[in-house]
Amino acid sequence: MSLWGGRFSTPSAAEFKQFNDSLSFDYVLAPFDIQASQAWATALHQARLLTATENQQLQQALGDLARAVAADPKLPLSADDEDIHSWVEAQLIDKIGATAKKLHTGRSRNDLVATDLRLFCKQLAQQLITANLAAINALLSFAETYSDTLLPGYTHLQRAQPIVAGHWALAYVQMLQRDVSRLRDAVKRMDVCPLGSGALAGTTAPLDRENLAHDLGFRLASENSLDAVSDRDFALDLLNAASNGMLHLSRLAEDVIFYCSGESGCFAMSDRISSGSSLMPQKKNPDLFELLRGKTGRVLGHQHALQITLKGLPMAYNKDMQEDKTGLFDALLTYQQCLQMLAFAIPELTVNSEHAARQAALGYSNATELADYLVSKGMPFRDAHHVTGEVVLLAQQQGLALEQLSIAQFNSVSDLIGEDVYPILEISYGLNKRSALGGTAPKAVKTGLKHAQDWLHAAEAASKHVRQARLSDVDKICELIAYWAEQGENLPRNKADIMQAIHGFAVAEINDEVVGCAALYVYSTGLAEIRSLGLFPQAQGKGLGAELVAWLLWKARELGISRTIVLTRVPEFFGRLNFRLTVKEKLPEKVMKDCDICPRKDNCDEIALEYWL
């Protein structure tokens, strides 16, 4: 079936039809095309362009079709329609006849495909965020296991300074965190609904496009119909995020391949993620990581291809844009698969700790410590750098490590070097000295690990149920606070107060319904408090309270807050979230602000806890 043809007197040539049709790849948009059609039918009914009976018929037929596609995603491929939009309409006509022909009133395939593709991209972006979080979780487990395990660090693929394996893993955690941030930013920009833009100039249907956008789960409706149907920068945003993410996976894969090599031997792969050679029985190959590295070029290529497709297109829609899909679909699914394989593979890696420690000590990796030692004796660093280079050359000529040189040999280069140099040349000395934030000392790694775990908990909450509150949430927040105030668990707050403080609130949702809230209140001293935490009874026991707390702790860190408190009658709940007991007398800000208006001020039974960020 084709959605056009009245002005044509002969059918399309078979050769052209095969070249032109897109059902073979855009069939994956079927669930989103059906979703958009359901919302469109509702909007047409509200605009009195469909009767209640016609809308009901369409909704029933579309619902049946959605269930059929969910059961068999490749169902559309059994037909010979031009594209997924034609297939959906043909299925509806077969089911309900003439009523189905009214569905396309006021819309075009141009705004419909732009909507379908955005819905697809929004869903895939969330799945990519989830896959990134799983990979981050695996890397954090690796970092925790090897938080003090020595590993040689490299620059220019030459031994440079010793690090710990946990520090190496946390470097990639940082990269993947930024990948999650890029995906979130892409989702924000694509969260705009094109439906109702028509072919290019807008729709003649008198409908409320903002309501239509919200029905489809978009934040906003597009404000320019030409832009809405003709650009695919939202797809480029997502491809850019995928390309950056794959670059990070490729670098990680290259590191693992090197550390697993016979030349390094610091890492070992389990048999579960290794392959062998058809000829050489001794081989154990890192094929999984080589594929991660190899698939990167594929994703980058798809990004570049779409850029070239779009670069010279005139306004508005052009058939060239049909080429936006195959590369996009393949790139995103490839990226998702690679993230899933990384999360699977990391637990199968181990560090050969004793061997890695010996490797870390090689290559005069303690030379910087000798230079710093000379600086501590009053020598300018540039001179100390030069003198240390001479000592290294002497040690190389003697075939010795720096710590194996005698004092006489040291003094032949500089008489500032004494017996106290030997403790400084021990590998643990330089390692532990790098304890500033971001350093490789085990102490600093444990701090970085804690920060990353807190970030992960907040990110998991945000990807599941928790988000920043909006003004449209005020009534639900008021309802929640009133409910728990009646139970004596929260102080009552009026609507104006909540509206004024809405920027400090987070809400938890189930099926797009607000079922919980909490707020972060910042005192003038820089202390922060988590307050107004509450869930409707039917939402309890699902982990939403912990998700709200994790999200607010992440927000506190983003604001540069170092200490967050809570006063509660359920200290065990916050204890499980790593809050520690404190005393209310250390919280004058809280006492001054709320205690005088609390009905229980003379018989307070709340426990104070704190969390250091």
Helix count from the secondary structure assignment: 24
The 3D shape can be described as globular
In percent terms, what proportion of residues is strand? 5-15%
Radius of gyration: 31 Å
Low-confidence stretches at least 5 residues in length (pLDDT < 50)? none
Main beta-sheet annotation: 7 strands, mixed
Mean pLDDT, all residues? 92
Structural class designation: alpha+beta
**Strand order of the main beta sheet, please?**
7-8-9-10-11-13-12
Cα distance spanning the termini? 61 Å
**Helix fraction bin:** 40-55%
Q: Could you tell me the number of beta strands?
A: 13
Oligomeric state of the chains in view: single chain
SSE layout and pairing:
Elements (H helix, E strand, L loop, with lengths): L13 H7 L2 H4 L3 H17 L5 H20 L12 H13 L12 H37 L4 E6 L2 E7 H26 L1 E2 L15 H7 L4 E2 L3 H6 L2 H28 L6 E3 L17 H24 L14 H21 L3 E3 L1 H9 L5 H10 L4 H18 L8 H5 L9 H5 L1 H7 L8 H23 L1 E3 L5 H13 L8 H6 L4 E6 L2 E10 L5 E8 L8 H15 L4 E6 L2 H6 L3 E2 L6 H6 L13 E6 L1
Parallel strand pairs: 3-4, 10-11
Antiparallel strand pairs: 1-2, 5-6, 7-8, 8-9, 9-10, 11-13, 12-13
